Amino acid sequence: MDLSNARIAIVGLGYVGLPLAVEFGKQRPVLGFDINTDRIAELKAGRDSTLEVEPEQLRKAGQLVFSSNAADLRACQVFIVTVPTPVDKANRPDLTPLVKASQSVGAALKPGDVVIYESTVYPGATEEICVPELEKSSGLWFSTSNSGFQGCMPKTSPSRPVNLCVHRPIWMRHEPRLHAGHQRALRAHAHGTC
Ligand SMILES: NC(=O)c1ccc[n+]([C@@H]2O[C@H](COP(=O)([O-])OP(=O)(O)OC[C@H]3O[C@@H](n4cnc5c(N)ncnc54)[C@H](O)[C@@H]3O)[C@@H](O)[C@H]2O)c1
């Protein structure tokens, strides 16, 4: 599996997504996608109202472009989902943003693409909630088999909370992370490049 030239999309540009997009954007083409058009407008103007990222760091991310147009996701091959997963008063998780983000990503998926969920979810949510949305929106189907990457049948390659480690910057390398991947090739890739 060669992800070295893959274009990355970060879906959800909040506290988690924006710093990730900026660090990747210093080294490779990245699309920062958010449904909040005001958020996109301020980031395009070089400002982060959450003060998570300094204007200078935003400037240094020369390969990062921003969009609120879901059609722009089609040019990407790796999708990192960093949308919120709030809980209600009864502490039940509201997975609406995750479902909607999965639908946007699903509509952009091509065979062999990789989907990474960084949003906090309960065990099983990726397979039971997210993967069916990806399949429905893409018309592709998910396989845990590595042969999925070579077969002629259309297949997607979503992963569970795997953190893509390609070009991972220093501060991310020092942060312990739990990786899980549905395919052997993807797991090897994540572990091998950390
Ligand atoms: N994996 C990790 O290491 C890690 C660490 C901390 C937090 N988290 C999790 O990451 C997730 C994001 O947290 P945060 O603090 O960055 O959230 P946030 O509220 O700061 O930002 C979320 C962003 O997602 C956008 N968004 C919402 N729905 C969207 C959609 N359908 N498509 C595109 N964009 C959408 C919002 O407009 C917002 O800008 C949470 O689930 C959090 O628990 C993960």
3D architecture notes:
Helix 4 crosses helix 5 (125-138). The protein has helices at residues 17-25, 37-44, 55-60, 96-108, 125-138, 170-173, 184-192, and strands spanning 8-11, 30-33, 64-67, 78-81, 114-117, 141-142, 155-158. It is α/β, with parallel strands linked by helices. The model is unreliable at 146-171 (pLDDT under 50). 32% of the residues lie in helices and 13% in strands. It contains seven helices and seven strands. A seven-stranded parallel beta sheet has the order 3-2-1-4-5-7-6, sandwiched between helices. It binds nicotinamide-adenine-dinucleotide. The site of nicotinamide-adenine-dinucleotide has 23 residues, from helix 4. Nicotinamide-adenine-dinucleotide binds next to helix 4.
List keywords for this structure.
seven-stranded parallel β-sheet, binds nicotinamide-adenine-dinucleotide, 194 residues, alpha/beta
What is the strand and helix layout of this fold?
Elements: E1 8-11, H1 17-25, E2 30-33, H2 37-44, H3 55-60, E3 64-67, E4 78-81, H4 96-108, E5 114-117, H5 125-138, E6 141-142, E7 155-158, H6 170-173, H7 184-192
Parallel strand pairs: 1-2, 1-4, 2-3, 4-5, 5-7, 6-7
The chain binds nicotinamide-adenine-dinucleotide.
Nicotinamide-adenine-dinucleotide binds next to helix 4.
